[in-house]
């Protein structure tokens, strides 16, 4: 079955004199429909070099989710459009950036946000650590994305099936459940994942156990982030930003949203 066409958003090359607004133009599937702020996209230097360049940032958490869902569906169906990856886009984004989401995921080489959400240059902030665990620099990076002028409407905490950091932690917990030991500073992510695994009351074993903890960990990191960052908490309370957890399946290529 063919996926629904992705909603398209006109590019906002030049913010209005009042400053950037994330509420601008919404494109329907039957064509581009300007809802507001038409002048914001009427930049004379907007490159007319193809469909990808007509795509602009969505403005609200719901709109961002819609764009990411559609992009992931294209990717999972084997029909990616590879938007915003042309030289023109690169040149244009060298002058400014206006990403519409931050994806926080794992370092795993198979879980590349721009690919699996079928996005391009300047579309996404990306932070990655083994197992997606947090530290101060990570939270600060997310606060940077949520703050002006970027004010991204959506943060995605993305776990993935068969996560090696989770599997490694579970293995180390078999030897020492309270203090799982991994070499060097890898112990840092193990110490963060282990309490989640203990609370998860895992049923099953092997890959089933790993995937269960991956899901619990994505939810736990989401909760930790909101607890830890007053800046992000405030943005969420004011409905400027939403934080959602999700899990990526390596086989199907599909992202499963755990909430939101
Ligand atoms: Zn991983």
The proportion of strand residues reads: 5-15%
Write out the distinct hetero groups bound to the structure: zinc ion
- Based on secondary structure, the structural category is alpha/beta
Overall CATH architecture: 3-Layer(aba) Sandwich
What is the H-and-E element order?
EEHHEHEHEHHHHEE
The H-level CATH homologous superfamily, spelled out, is Carbonic anhydrase
Low-confidence stretches: 1-54
**Overall pLDDT metric:** 82
DSSP, total strands:
7
What is the end-to-end distance? 25 Å
| The number of domains | 1
Helix content, binned percent = 25-40%
Protein name: Carbonate dehydratase
InterPro entries: Carbonic_anhydrase, Carbonic_anhydrase_sf, TAT_signal
Pfam families: Pro_CA
Keywords: Lyase
Describe this structure in words.
It contains 8 helices and 7 strands; from the N terminus they run E-E-H-H-E-H-E-H-E-H-H-H-H-E-E. With 260 residues, it is α/β, with parallel strands linked by helices. The protein has one domain: 3-Layer(aba) Sandwich (Beta-carbonic Anhydrase, Chain A), CATH 3.40.1050.10. The strands form 2 sheets. A 5-stranded mixed sheet has the order 4-3-5-6-7, with helices on both faces. Strand 1 (26-28) and strand 2 form a beta hairpin. The structure holds zinc ion (ZN). Zinc ion (ZN) is lined by residues 106, 108, 131, 160, 163-165.
């Amino acid at each position: 079955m063919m996926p629904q066409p992705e909603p398209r958003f006109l590019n906002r090359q030049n913010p209005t004199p009042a400053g950037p607004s994330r509420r601008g133009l919404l494109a329907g599937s039957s064509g581009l429909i300007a809802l507001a702020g038409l002048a914001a996209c009427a930049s004379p230097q907007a490159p007319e070099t193809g469909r990808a360049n007509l795509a602009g940032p969505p403005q609200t958490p719901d709109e961002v989710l819609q764009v990411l869902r559609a992009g992931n569906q294209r990717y999972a169906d084997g029909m990616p459009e590879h938007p915003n990856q042309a030289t023109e886009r690169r040149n244009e984004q060298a002058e400014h950036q206006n990403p519409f989401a931050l994806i926080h995921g794992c370092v795993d080489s198979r879980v590349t946000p721009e690919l699996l959400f079928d996005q391009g240059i300047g579309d996404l902030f990306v932070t990655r650590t083994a197992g997606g665990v947090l530290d101060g620099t990570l939270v600060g990076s997310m606060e940077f994305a949520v703050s002006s002028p970027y004010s991204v409407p959506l943060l995605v905490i993305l776990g993935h099936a068969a996560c090696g950091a989770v599997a490694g932690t579970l293995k180390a917990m078999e030897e020492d459940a309270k203090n799982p030991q991994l070499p060097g500073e890898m112990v840092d992510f193990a110490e963060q994942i282990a309490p989640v695994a203990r609370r998860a009351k895992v049923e099953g074993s092997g890959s089933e156990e790993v995937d269960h903890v991956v899901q619990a960990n994505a939810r736990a990191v989401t909760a930790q982030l909101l607890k830890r960052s007053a800046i992000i908490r405030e943005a969420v309370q004011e409905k400027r930003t939403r934080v959602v957890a999700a899990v990526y399946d390596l086989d199907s290529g599909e992202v499963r949203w755990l909430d939101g």
